[in-house]
């Protein structure tokens, strides 16, 4: 496995382990986090707003893990305390052995809210 893939997996492992020291080492000083709810949060804001969610995260099951140049693409199904499951994709930009940016694309609940072959109104 490449060092970029190992770095990406280590980020998710630190999140599940609630290991702040590990994630501190993995995120670059100029790190930024973007999602449908967050627009290029800096490192400080990420730890203030997003890191607390690690407390309710129990695991990530990787569905797809791929590397291209300085980016790692990860699709996973996550499970929160209480059994809630959801599927997301993240793009991690890695420089050396640190993550400089994360883009999160929200997916769907698992199991899916809409029946197979059907549309669910919002």
Task: Tell me what you see in this structure.
It is a single chain. The chain is of the alpha+beta class. The chain has a single domain (3-110), classed as Nuclear Transport Factor 2, Chain: A, CATH 3.10.450. It has 3 helices and 6 strands. It has helices at residues 3-17, 20-26, 43-49, and strands at 27-34, 41-42, 57-68, 71-80, 85-95, 98-110. Strands 2-1-6-5-4-3 form a 6-stranded mixed sheet. Helix 1 (3-17) runs antiparallel to helix 2 (20-26). It is globular. The termini are far apart. The model has no long low-confidence stretch (mean pLDDT 95).
> Looking at the structure, what is the overall shape?
globular
Which CATH first-tier class would you pick?
Alpha Beta
Tally of structural domains? 1
Class from helix and strand fractions: alpha+beta
- Strand fraction: over 45%
Tally of DSSP helical segments:
3
**Percent range of helical residues:** 10-25%
Assembly status: single chain
Draw up the topology in text:
Elements: H1 3-17, H2 20-26, E1 27-34, E2 41-42, H3 43-49, E3 57-68, E4 71-80, E5 85-95, E6 98-110
Parallel strand pairs: 1-6
Antiparallel strand pairs: 1-2, 3-4, 4-5, 5-6
Helix pairs in contact: 1-2
What's a quick, concise take on this entry?
The protein has 122 residues and is of the alpha+beta class. It contains 3 helices and 6 strands.
Primary descriptors:
122 residues; alpha+beta; Nuclear Transport Factor 2, Chain: A; 6-stranded mixed beta sheet; 3 helices; 24% helix; globular
């Amino acid at each position: 496995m490449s060092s970029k893939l190992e770095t990406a997996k280590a980020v998710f492992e630190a999140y599940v382990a609630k290991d702040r020291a590990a994630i501190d080492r993995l995120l670059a000083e100029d790190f930024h986090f973007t999602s449908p709810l967050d627009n290029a949060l800096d490192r400080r804001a990420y730890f203030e707003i997003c890191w607390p969610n690690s407390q309710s995260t129990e695991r990530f099951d990787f569905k797809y893990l791929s590397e291209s140049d300085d980016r790692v693409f990860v699709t996973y199904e996550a499970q929160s305390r209480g059994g809630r499951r959801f599927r997301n994709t993240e793009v991690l930009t890695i420089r050396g052995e640190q993550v400089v940016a994360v883009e999160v694309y929200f997916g769907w609940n698992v199991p899916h809210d809409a029946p197979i072959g059907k549309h669910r109104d919002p």
